[in-house]
């Protein structure tokens, strides 16, 4: 008979404690069927435990004897064990004090249930329960039951502490087994460094030799994470300290991925190898988003350990490493601090295998891999889109809405739709659309709705409504018109447009609607920067760049103000108090550029942006959409364009290069290896939008009319990324020395949304 700390062995044990104690007996520890029956019984008993916010109308089976027990009628659990700890009162040799507060349940007044009592179990019993996770033959059902029991028992601080310690011991044992297996593989492969065929064979053997310890480790990691979920130290998962295991995992990943240490997997000249299959660059890049969901054997074996790493480091972005190097500037909207954590470095280094696992099992982003969403720039667009669609499906399944019937006249589709939808609640807007065009007999089985979206998208940009204006650099992109107030209903219309854009995304409908990059940023909650001025006013953008790059002392006569033309009248807006009387100097010119950028991209259209976002967020929550960047948001809204590489190649001009230049040959080789997603990113990076003219690249528009795609030579090899000038459809490519370097820099530029444009 086992006794808990602080308990006299003469005291009677509770029925539950007795059930727990038999876990370690031979009859149950050696016989799997008996063990599962016992766990089933324990799960039924602990299922009666209620947290303070869960109503209950019956007493718990745990409420049995006057042993040391903890009441769960307090929300704060604290970390200390013993009398007066934060989890609730400790009651010895007495009955609990029932609450006198009545409750209403299901419209009926019921007597409150007595406080639920959790026994402080003997250490050996909790250790026996935790040890079930490492037992040979432990099924998924058994694992789930153990998890449920431990979570309930951990409402007691003492049980919680003991359980976490027991899980950590189990994790160390399984970690040692996994590390030993991985180390043996590494030694074997290192000895075969010059024999590529033998290395491939060794990798294949490794792929087939999966150990049960890898799955056991994952189960222990998930169980510990569940216990820590409500605790104050949730960011400090105990498995995060298994440094040797994680270092060994990284070395194995380097080998099976064929990624040289310190280099990105997308930039290396070696072919990424998984198991016995070497995937050529051309095939790998084109098949990345082709719907293939197979995982190479070696990666499949590593997946439980990789998942364990994510579980163990899932919250370590809350604590930045004190030894992390000073972060370099980044072109994405993701905080650079996150790249300096163990998790951030791991995701950056192994983004290709991680995305392969996500593609094979999209639900990982809702579970063990969800911390990867803190690094969205490392997740491929198709994986983010799949996760986003799953969120929409979940929200849709939770909504009890019917069909939205809309009857519109073709010639008045905007007004009719506005008046019929503007009074609908956000919840009603999530219903299925059924569109009928007046005077037409078409039955809407989806096609009529798609046509309605197409017509409405064109009307949104109709100049007669004065809501949006074409960007100065491109005729294909639009920006809210700061003078839209000439239409007295303009804010109501902007909210309606936000709803329509949100509804289209919610329904998975593609729109022929393209906005400026700064407006996409507003939709994502990202602050625009001065580079975004280029799409609105290319000449003004060029002057801002000149100001930043040159000494303006005695050259320019500017003040901390800006002039706006409103219907023929010039109005002055102060950027700071009394700004019109404060000159712009070399010292404050950066502030001037920042303030004038904010005025042009945000403040001048702040009411329009707010109204649009109000309608947009009624259907698409900000936290759901923020995983995308502004380039990806356009692809989500408007879809991947069908890009004809041959048409592009026949309608391109070169400056400094010619068609036979090595860099140009390498450029087209890199382009030929891109999938449709990266091709869209390339076009978007250079021209400012992924939209391709219906007539092809021969009629591509620029700042001054027709402007072909243009590649400009930058003298000398460089570590700089390619730069773009969207107003001229121009791509600047330095004289890179190798194909590998050119491809690496080009992919980084288009995938990470580089915003230097040759000036930063």
TrEMBL record:
<protein>
    <recommendedName>
        <fullName>HECT-type E3 ubiquitin transferase</fullName>
        <ecNumber>2.3.2.26</ecNumber>
    </recommendedName>
</protein>
<feature type="region of interest" description="Disordered">
    <location>
        <begin position="53"/>
        <end position="107"/>
    </location>
</feature>
<feature type="region of interest" description="Disordered">
    <location>
        <begin position="260"/>
        <end position="295"/>
    </location>
</feature>
<dbReference type="InterPro" id="IPR000569">
    <property type="entry name" value="HECT_dom"/>
</dbReference>
<comment type="pathway">
    <text>Protein modification; protein ubiquitination.</text>
</comment>
<dbReference type="GO" id="GO:0000209">
    <property type="term" value="P:protein polyubiquitination"/>
</dbReference>
<dbReference type="InterPro" id="IPR035983">
    <property type="entry name" value="Hect_E3_ubiquitin_ligase"/>
</dbReference>
<comment type="similarity">
    <text>Belongs to the UPL family. TOM1/PTR1 subfamily.</text>
</comment>
<keyword id="KW-0833">Ubl conjugation pathway</keyword>
<feature type="active site" description="Glycyl thioester intermediate">
    <location>
        <position position="727"/>
    </location>
</feature>
<dbReference type="Pfam" id="PF00632">
    <property type="entry name" value="HECT"/>
</dbReference>
<keyword id="KW-0808">Transferase</keyword>
<feature type="domain" description="HECT">
    <location>
        <begin position="425"/>
        <end position="760"/>
    </location>
</feature>
<dbReference type="GO" id="GO:0061630">
    <property type="term" value="F:ubiquitin protein ligase activity"/>
</dbReference>
<keyword id="KW-0677">Repeat</keyword>
<dbReference type="GO" id="GO:0005737">
    <property type="term" value="C:cytoplasm"/>
</dbReference>
<dbReference type="InterPro" id="IPR050409">
    <property type="entry name" value="E3_ubiq-protein_ligase"/>
</dbReference>
<dbReference type="GO" id="GO:0006511">
    <property type="term" value="P:ubiquitin-dependent protein catabolic process"/>
</dbReference>
<feature type="compositionally biased region" description="Polar residues">
    <location>
        <begin position="97"/>
        <end position="107"/>
    </location>
</feature>
């Amino acid at each position: 008979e086992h006794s808990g700390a602080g308990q006299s062995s003469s005291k009677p044990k509770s029925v539950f404690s007795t059930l727990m104690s038999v876990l370690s007996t031979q009859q149950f520890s050696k016989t799997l069927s008996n063990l599962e029956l016992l766990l089933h019984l324990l799960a039924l008993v602990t299922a009666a435990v209620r947290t303070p916010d869960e109503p209950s109308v019956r007493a718990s089976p745990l409420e049995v004897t006057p042993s040391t027990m903890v009441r769960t009628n307090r929300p704060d659990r604290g970390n200390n064990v013993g009398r007066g700890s934060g989890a609730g009162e400790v009651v010895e040799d007495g009955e609990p004090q029932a609450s006198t507060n009545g409750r209403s349940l299901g419209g009926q007044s019921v007597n409150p249930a007595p406080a639920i009592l959790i026994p402080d179990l003997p250490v050996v019993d909790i250790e026996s329960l935790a040890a079930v996770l490492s037992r040979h033959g432990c099924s998924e059902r058994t694992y789930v039951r153990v998890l449920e029991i431990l979570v309930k028992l951990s409402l007691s601080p003492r049980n919680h502490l003991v359980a976490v310690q027991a899980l950590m011991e189990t994790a160390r044992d399984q970690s040692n087994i996994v590390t030993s297996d991985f180390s043996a593989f590494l030694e074997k492969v290192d000895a075969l460094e010059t024999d590529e065929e033998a290395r491939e064979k060794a990798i294949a053997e490794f792929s087939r030799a999966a150990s049960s310890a890898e799955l056991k480790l994952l189960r222990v990691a998930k169980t510990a994470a569940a216990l820590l979920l409500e605790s104050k130290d949730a960011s400090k998962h105990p498995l995060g300290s298994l440094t040797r295991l994680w270092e060994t995992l990284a070395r194995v990943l380097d080998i099976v991925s064929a990624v040289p240490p310190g280099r990105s997997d997308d930039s290396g000249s070696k072919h990424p190898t998984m198991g016995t299959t070497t995937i050529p660059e051309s095939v790998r890049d084109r098949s990345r988003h082709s719907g293939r969901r197979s995982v190479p054997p070696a990666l499949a074996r590593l997946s439980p350990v990789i998942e364990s790493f994510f579980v163990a480091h899932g919250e370590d972005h809350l604590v930045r490493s004190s030894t992390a190097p000073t972060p370099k500037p980044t072109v994405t909207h993701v905080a650079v601090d996150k790249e300096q954590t163990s998790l951030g470095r791991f995701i950056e280094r192994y983004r290709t295998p991680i995305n392969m696992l996500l593609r094979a099992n999209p639900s990982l982003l809702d579970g063990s891999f969800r911390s990867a969403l803190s690094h969205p720039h490392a997740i491929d667009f198709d994986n983010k889109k799949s996760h986003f669609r799953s969120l929409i499906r979940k929200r849709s399944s939770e909504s009890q809405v019917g069909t939205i019937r809309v009857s519109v006249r073709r010639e008045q589709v905007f007004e009719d739709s506005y008046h019929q939808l503007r009074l609908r609640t956000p919840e009603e807007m999530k219903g299925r659309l059924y569109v009928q065009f007046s005077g037409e007999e078409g039955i809407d089985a989806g096609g009529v709705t798609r046509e309605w979206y197409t017509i409405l998208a064109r009307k949104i940009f109709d100049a007669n409504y004065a809501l949006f204006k074409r960007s100065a650099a491109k005729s294909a992109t639009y920006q809210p018109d700061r003078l839209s107030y000439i239409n007295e209903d303009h804010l109501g219309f902007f909210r309606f447009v936000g709803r329509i854009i949100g509804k289209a995304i919610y329904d998975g409908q593609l729109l022929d609607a393209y906005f400026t990059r700064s407006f996409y940023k507003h939709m994502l909650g990202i602050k625009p920067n001065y580079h975004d001025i280029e799409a609105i006013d290319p000449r003004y953008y060029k002057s801002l760049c000149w100001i930043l790059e040159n000494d303006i002392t005695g050259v320019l006569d500017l003040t901390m103000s800006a002039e706006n033309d409103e219907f023929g009248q010039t109005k002055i807006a102060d950027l700071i108090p009394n700004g019109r009387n404060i000159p712009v100097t070399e010292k404050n010119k950066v502030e001037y550029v920042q303030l004038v950028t904010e005025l042009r991209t945000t403040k001048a259209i702040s009411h329009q942006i707010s109204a649009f976002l109000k309608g947009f967020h009624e259907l698409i929550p900000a936290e759901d959409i923020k995983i995308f960047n502004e380039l990806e948001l356009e692809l989500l809204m408007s879809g991947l364009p069908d890009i004809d590489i041959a048409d592009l190649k026949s309608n391109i001009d070169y400056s400094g290069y010619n068609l036979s230049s090595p860099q140009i040959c390498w450029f087209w080789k890199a382009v030929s290896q891109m999938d449709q997603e990266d091709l869209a990113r390339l076009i978007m990076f250079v021209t400012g939008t992924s939209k391709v003219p219906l007539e092809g690249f021969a009629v591509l528009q620029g700042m001054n009319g027709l402007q072909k795609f243009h590649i400009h030579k930058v003298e000398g090899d460089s570590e700089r990324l390619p730069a773009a000038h969207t107003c001229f459809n121009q791509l600047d490519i330095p004289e890179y020395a190798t194909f590998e370097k050119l491809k690496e820099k080009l992919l980084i530029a288009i995938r990470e949304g580089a915003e230097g444009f040759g000036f930063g």
